[in-house]
Write a structure and sequence with these properties.
The complex is a heterodimer. By secondary structure, chain A is of the alpha+beta class. Chain A has 7 helices and 6 strands. Chain A has a 6-stranded antiparallel beta sheet with strand order 1-2-6-5-4-3, with helices on both faces. Chain A is globular and about 45 Å long. Chain B is of the alpha+beta class. Classes of the chains: A alpha+beta, B alpha+beta. Chains A and B meet through helix 1, strand 1 and helix 3 of A and helix 5, strand 3, strand 4 and helix 6 of B.
């Protein structure tokens, strides 16, 4: 666990809800995944056939870290959702989108980077009747490609990022 | 001629011994458990259902050392687990690229690079009952790492495939 703590400390530059992660990372009823910038850089070695796939790889290469904390089969989904939202420093994060999907509520937040027009962090908080998840993706993020990045990496949790693509089509409820 | 054969076999054995990390070797020496070697061709043979994802996952793997240790009988404590993680990064110059926990099972992935290329990959999975170590010469296709994570985490398919193939 010391290794995990040191890893998380290393990966946590500027990420949103460190307090929340710190509080629950040792709780074994939570699932968690932490990915370093090294893994993202190694992913750029993927062989691609299509030019659009290369664009996704280029977008992945600019990511610096990913953390996911989640809990399934829990009655605390909505309580945890509220707790996570309360811990987000609203002065630093701008709400991008809210989605209600069946019994789940999701909110997406972004934090601007030093470079104008670039996003430094994307946070997704999801809470439902029986599950909860918070995701923090940081680095240099291209929102236009975020949904495809999620599907390319095939990691539970990232699949929700396609909602951001859906938004472009305007087919989701805004709350 | 017989001496030449013995020398050749010894050379091969030494090559095999050097192909895995010392940390894995020490772990294997210290604890009883399942310990298996798999080579590229053996791994291909495992894929009898011609699962393209599995093929993709193993395409850059030269060899795998697989260890499975019963933590209860071998008295493998959480402190031992922490030390194992630390040894890979501090004594073997591996770098952690991913860690996770699902349903009480922890998993870590480490890589060792040389000349900008991944030369070795270590995957550790542990729960309160067992410790699994995959010491890989080469690299797994990292975009498939989560699939491997799921395979180990949900039903230990990798372990079963490796074990069954060895028995067959």
């Amino acid at each position: 666990m010391a290794m995990m703590l040191s890893s998380i400390a290393a990966f946590s530059q500027g990420d949103a809800i460190s307090k929340f992660f710190t509080k629950y990372q040792d709780d074994e009823t939570f699932s968690q995944v932490t990915i370093s910038s090294k893994m993202f850089s190694l992913l750029t070695d993927m062989e691609v056939d299509k030019p659009e796939d290369q664009e996704i790889i280029d977008a992945i290469s600019k990511l610096k870290g990913l953390r996911i904390l989640g809990k399934d089969d829990t009655r605390d989904g909505r309580t945890l959702y509220k707790e996570a939202l309360a811990l987000l420093p609203t002065k630093d994060y701008e709400e991008l989108m809210s989605v209600r999907d069946e019994d789940k509520d999701m909110k997406f937040f972004i934090r601007s980077g030093a470079t104008p027009g670039k996003i430094a962090e994307l946070v997704m908080v999801m809470g439902g009747a029986d599950d909860f998840m918070v995701l923090s993706l940081f680095g240099e993020i291209d929102l236009k490609k975020i949904g495809k990045i999620g599907s390319k990496m095939d990691i539970d949790g990232l699949n929700h990022l396609h909602k951001l693509d859906d938004k472009k089509g305007g087919d989701k409820d805004k709350h | 001629m017989k001496h030449l054969l013995i020398i050749a076999l010894t050379a091969c054995a030494l090559q095999v011994a050097h192909a895995q990390t010392k940390t894995t070797e020490l772990l294997d020496d210290k604890h009883e458990g399942t310990s298996l070697y798999f080579y590229k061709n053996t791994l291909r043979m495992l894929n009898q259902k011609e699962d393209k994802e599995f093929d993709e996952m193993i395409k850059d793997i030269e060899k795998i050392r697989f260890l499975m240790i019963d933590r209860q009988t071998e008295n493998f404590s959480n402190a031992d687990f922490k030390k194992l993680q630390s040894d890979y990064t501090k004594k073997e110059s591996y770098e952690e690229i991913m860690n996770g926990r699902l349903d009480g099972r922890n998993m870590n992935i480490y890589v060792r690079e040389s000349g900008g290329k991944v030369k070795g990959t270590i995957i550790i999975a542990a729960d309160s009952s067992n410790l699994y170590v995959l010491d890989i010469l080469g690299r797994i296709a990292l975009e498939k790492a989560s699939a491997l994570f799921k395979m180990i985490d949900e039903n230990s398919d990798v372990a079963k495939k490796l074990k069954n193939a060895h028995i067959d």
